[in-house]
Design goal:
Low-confidence stretches: 1-41
Number of strands: 7
Shape: globular
Strand order of the largest sheet: 1-3-2-4-5-6-7
Largest sheet: 7 strands, mixed
Order of helices and strands: HHEEHEHEHEHHHEHEH
Radius of gyration: 20 Å
Strand content: 5-15%
Distance between the termini: 56 Å
Length: 314
């Protein structure tokens, strides 16, 4: 018997009134949906691109939902390494080449992984600034982790999934909750329902979908997990003292810039908000992505070298 089945059997056997049984039934289903199966391997695949010449700074790059470290960051890494920035990009747990591929690990696990990886990268490159760059889901993970022990001198949040809490449309929240409760493993392609383009770079889309480890059909469990990440990020924002640069595209069809900005404005150490007129959701892979790559490089290299304690000097 599964965990969910055991919980549902308990609900039936306690003799609650019908209305209460229905409520407890939904809660039990949601608990089973959110728990998710544990990953087969606690390790995550961490790719790295060494800086060309002297290492002047480091970037830990966190990809978005369904993506991989390679598909999301290979092109960006080529640019940043040419500027003397070493780049590290994991396949986050549940994605890429990890044994837990397509199994949602839970928002807390993703935040914990990001925190641990930041310490690993810091230990490899003491004395230089470390910036955590998060795209979409990775941006939400980065902001939530910044309030949970992340070791970083600055954050760059690109098209970040941070608009949780009161910034999230309650209708969308209720829909995600309901789907996770009733059909946690149902996957959704969006075909015939929504028509969303992540970028104006068609070749980038072709390269990404050609990767056998990429997937764009989230389960109901994963959709609710993304809501959890956004809620955690929004809740963390008022306590984040790490300088944070947030980037959005005016043509983003996944996230609303005004909702994202409302959460960015709550970050005490907000270091800037940039809305790119030609930008889409995949900012770094857009046809005008070179502008965004340069902005991140300039921001990163503008940090002074890290102090002996490991944190950059303000």
């Amino acid at each position: 018997m599964s965990l969910g089945e055991a919980r549902l059997s308990t609900v039936r056997d306690l003799g609650y009134p019908r209305a209460m049984r229905r409520a407890l039934f939904a809660l039990a289903l949601l608990a089973a949906a959110c728990a998710g199966p544990p990953p087969a391997d606690p390790e995550v695949r961490l790719r790295s691109w060494p800086a060309r010449g002297e290492t002047r700074a480091t970037i830990l790059a966190l990809h978005g939902f369904g993506d991989t470290g390679a598909t999301a960051w290979a092109e960006a890494a080529r640019y940043w390494t040419s500027r003397g920035i070493a780049v590290y990009a994991p396949d986050q747990r549940g994605f890429g080449e990890n044994p837990s591929w397509r199994r949602w690990p839970g928002a807390e696990a993703l935040v914990s992984d990001a925190t641990q990886l930041s310490h690993i990268v810091r230990a490899r490159h003491p004395g230089v600034p470390l910036v955590v760059v998060g795209h979409s889901m990775g941006g939400g993970v980065a902001l939530a982790a910044a309030a949970a022990g992340l070791d970083a001198d600055a954050l760059v949040l690109a098209g970040p999934a941070i608009a949780g809490g009161d910034a999230l449309n309650p209708v969308l929240r209720a829909g995600a909750w309901t789907m996770a409760a009733l059909m946690p493993d149902r996957r959704w392609t969006g075909d015939g329902v929504v028509d969303i383009s992540p970028t104006d770079n068609i070749e980038a889309i072709r390269r990404t979908v050609a990767d056998p480890r990429f997937f764009g059909d989230p389960s109901s469990r994963e959709l609710w997990g993304l809501v959890r990440i956004m809620d955690m990020a929004a809740a963390a924002a008022p306590s984040v003292e790490t300088p944070t640069l947030t980037l959005m595209g005016a043509h983003d069809e996944v996230l609303r810039p005004d909702r994202v900005e409302s959460v960015h404005d709550r970050i005490p150490a907000a270091a800037g908000w940039r809305l790119y007129p030609e930008g889409w959701h995949w900012l770094f892979r857009d046809l005008h992505g070179g502008i965004v790559l340069e902005d991140v490089a300039t921001f990163t290299l503008g940090l002074r070298p890290a102090a002996p304690s490991g944190r950059a000097v303000p």
